[in-house]
Amino acid sequence: MLGWSQDDLVGATEGRVVRRSVTRFENDSTSPHPDTVAAIRTALEQAGVIFISPSNGEGPGVRLRKDGEA
Q: What pTM was estimated for this model as a whole?
């Protein structure tokens, strides 16, 4: 969606996540620490990703923020 590499994601977390954690998370070889998940989510949201929950009526998923959308 964003076209990011693992290094791009790690950089966007401003040092709160290391590449090894992202690799393990992607390979489903470990359960990430809640702080890691929060840092990744924050980085993605700051880049324009919107997480959609079942409670808002649209079902679970993600989408990119539209231009001018808060």
A: 0.83
